[in-house]
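[Q] Does anyone have a clean structure-token version of this?
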Amino acid sequence: MHCHRPLIHHALLRMEAPPKLPPAPSPVPPRQSRRFSRLDILFLSLGIVCAVVVVSVAYFSRTSPLTSNPLTDAFEKVKTASQDKAVLNNARQLAAAADQHYLETSTPFASRSQLIGLTNYIKSLNTIAGETYPVHFTHGVTITITGIGGARTMTYVP
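[A] Here you go.
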């Protein structure tokens, strides 16, 4: 006859067995140094040379007095044009104020102090680039502004 074990006994055996632990992680192998190929070294060298060339060109094109920098030249051109336009606008205002003064006083002469001031035709005249405006104005005579940017002169025909 067969010996049958009771079912309860099998269940107890299973519960009494210790739980299985996960396997221990394998040790990390030591890192091996990477060897650079000739192509890696070539690209690295090429990158360094290109960086040095770009930085050198940028530095010397900006600081060398023998060469002109197109960016700086363009900026100066725009700055000069802007200053000249503002000075020309001031000259137009002076000419219009002088014309009004000639009409109201029936004289062909006006001084800067008669044209510019809180109670005069022009409240204030701001200089743009260190320019000098005439002190006296005469009907029909061109207005000459000197010292624009320390070097330029402009005339305005009213």
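[Q] Thanks! Anything notable?
[A] The two ends are 137 Å apart (CA to CA).
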